[in-house]
Amino acid sequence: MAVYVVTWNLNKEGAAYQQARAAFLKQLGAYENTHDSQLETVRWISTTDSAKQVSDYLLQKLDKNDRLFVSKLVSGTHQGWLEQTTWDWINQRL
C-alpha cells in the first residue's frame, strides 16, 4: 500500500459547487482516506493504485476548469503541521 496526498480545486459557483463537491468526495470515498479539519480540499488516501490511476479515477468527477494534484508520500520525506490523528493515520500506513 502507498499513501498519496490529494488536493483539488473545483471552479464552480453556487449550488453547482455543492453538487460537484459531493460527487467528488463520493468518488474519493472509494479509497481509504483521511483529512485534517483545517485543510478543506486535501485528503490522504491509502491504495495499491499508482498516482496516475488515482488521478484518472478522480478526474472522472472533475471538469476541464477544475484542478487536481496527486503525489505519493515517501517515509521520512514529508513534514508539516497537521492534527495528530492525521499524522497517526499517515504514519501507520507508510
Descriptive keywords:
single chain; 94 residues; alpha+beta; 36% helix
Q: Overall 3D geometry?
A: globular
Low-confidence stretches: none
Strand content bin: 15-25%
Q: Can you count the beta strands?
A: 4
Number of discrete helical segments:
3
Task: Tell me the span between the first and last alpha carbons.
Answer: 8 Å
Could you give the topology of this structure?
Elements: E1 2-9, H1 14-28, E2 32-34, E3 42-47, H2 51-59, E4 67-72, H3 84-93
Antiparallel strand pairs: 1-3, 1-4, 2-3
Account of the 3D structure:
- With 94 residues, the protein is of the alpha+beta class.
- The chain has a four-stranded antiparallel β-sheet, with helices on both faces.
- The longest helix has 15 residues.
- It is globular and about 40 Å long.
- The termini are close together.
Brief account:
The chain is of the alpha+beta class. 36% of the residues lie in helices and 24% in strands.
